[in-house]
Amino acid sequence: MLTFIGLGLYDERSITVEGQEALRDADRVFAEFYTSKLVGATLEDLESHHDLEIEVRDRAGVEQEPDEMLEAAETEDVAFLTAGDTMISTTHVDLRLRAHDRGIETRVIHGVTAQTAASSLTGLQNYRFGTATTLPFPYAHGADGLPASVTETIDDNRERGLHTVVYLDIKVGYDPTSSQNASRSDDKVGHERTDEDEYMTADVGAELLAEAYPDLVGVVVARAGSPEPVVEAAPMTELAEREFGDPLHLLVVPGECHLLEADALVELAGADRGALDIA
Hints:
By secondary structure, this protein is α/β, with parallel strands linked by helices. The chain has helices at 17-25, 43-50, 59-63, 67-75, 90-101, 114-122, 138-141, 148-159, 202-209, 236-239, 259-269, and strands at 2-6, 28-31, 55-56, 78-82, 106-109, 133-135, 164-168, 170-171, 193-194, 197-199, 217-222, 230-235, 249-253. The chain has eleven helices and 13 strands. The strands form three sheets. The chain has a five-stranded parallel beta sheet, sandwiched between helices. The protein has a five-stranded mixed beta sheet with strand order 6-7-13-11-12, with helices on both faces. A three-stranded antiparallel beta sheet has the order 8-10-9, with no helix packed on it.
């Protein structure tokens, strides 16, 4: 049996009761933290809280060399942990399909996701979100300006009156001395780091988006799932000048707002009602 368990959004307590019970029943526990991670807990916190040992796999260990996990799941109860909801990433869907190819039974225990939390914290209705996109660090995509994948997604959603979740880039194991990154400038874009990992913060994301959308209202959601999340709405140029504290951050670009959604953005995020596109 291979059980996929979403750990939720913030720390070792964010897991569901069902997930915790399945985790404690597992013979072996694997995890990956390259698609996202719990910023409110270390690996040691997780192991101590759940009284178990967790074997962490990097991207290659999940996508290219999953045999150890799959072979274990043929004869034992194996748990595979990720932050958020475990099936949001196609990486994990692929792993599940590989397990099915081997005749391994699988189970999914969901966790809270950043996208649903963003809807809840901003008051924007979940059914009115369009396709999400990820904003990469400039050095990661190598093109001038914003990638077309970002602008086309925002533009297409806005034409349909839909909101857009913009996930902000995460680089696990970032090395600023590597040849790939040595030529990067020392401005703030792309230089928010925690230990060996690098997280794009919302001010950096807003600065990048302001190149194409200077007056467009964005909504910052920082540390969703934590005891004190931050939700702030303002034009991109203003958000670029603010600080939002520790990661993880994301940005929401509102589309056409219903009256209730506009009320929520004004009350919960400090938005200027006059700057919103209200139906």
